[in-house]
Amino acid sequence: MSDWDVLVAKDDLRKIEVRNAPPRAPLADGEVRLEVERFSLTANNITYGLIGEAFGYWKFFPAGEGLGRIPVWGFATVVESNAADAPVGLRVFGYLPMSSSFTARLARKGGGFIDTSAHRAELPPTYNAYAEAPEDASDDHRALLRPLFMTSWLLDDFLSEDAAIKTLVLSSASSKTAMGLAWFARRRGVPVVGLTSPGNAGTLAGLGLYDRIVPYGEAGSLKVEGPAVYVDFAGDAQVNQTVHEALGGELARSIIVGGTHWSGDRAPRALAGPQPVLFFAPDQIRKRAAEWGQQELDQRFVAALHEFVADARWLKLKQSTGPEGLLAAYREVLEGRARPDEGHIIRPA
Predict the structure, then answer these.
(1) 299 belongs to a structural domain
(2) Both 78 and 154 in a single domain?
(3) 308 within domain boundaries
(4) Most buried in the list 128, 175, 200, 280, measured by CB within 10 Å?
(5) For residues 39-54, b (16+ Cβ closer than 10 Å) or e, as one string?
(6) How many domains does the chain divide into?
(7) Structure pTM?
(8) Domain containing 174: what range?
(9) Which of 263, 223, 216 is nearest to 239 (CA)?
(10) What's 259's DSSP letter?
């Protein structure tokens, strides 16, 4: 099959299609062509599409007018090269399009590579970085968990600076990033309450990640020990209003992370108590890299990731192949049908 791209309508993530990519053109000086080997697909990617315009996520892999290429995290290999630093056969982990191949301008920086393409120059450095990635038996777990778990780890690191916190309340408790944060927080002895749909409540309760699971329909009667922090992964205005009102004076902070309820009620409304503040993971990365050094930051994260994988025997990897497999997995994640104990891994070929 010829090269292909998966494109979505920026204003309606349900509109998705596979298109043949233009024929491969000769590479310019400094360019490489990479074939995509595998990547994960999660609610995190839906969030990229949902806030793509506001946060620049559509700019990484430009598409035609009104269309976008949702970024994903995974592995790719250089198959053609006009770049001195990136020979044919180089395998990297990083930010990829939902495509069979793509071009980049890879240059050495520190212990890895960055894409120096002009259209990515003003975008967050975290997303322009590519790490050399020899094959490993844990590659599926790395593709799935490295980006999500990094956000979980950084969130927990950010929250751990506030010793007064007595309880965390997480919306979209079935999202992998929320599950990772719950795992970290409970290791620190902080109780965690997870809000979820009735269909996911039983599965989540059996995983041992949360102290309590509360269906959204019961959030209005939620009571916790304060000071409490509400971490919103869902982006549902009605849920947020209900939680703020239920927690009342016990709510000390409200943090926005994601938008898994992309089709839910997103109309702005007045909220009781502390107003939501956005958590942007690259900001915390820059802070810790400056304090610890990038190598120390990477070592701490990798050690935490290995501990989580060893502990997460409940996690099942769901494999899909080719554009049709990708479309089926995308719709499952988009419509909220993905199981909390499963993770999607996509192989383009």
Answers:
(1) no
(2) no
(3) no
(4) 175
(5) bbbbbbbbbbbbbbee
(6) 2
(7) 0.82
(8) 148-282
(9) 216
(10) -
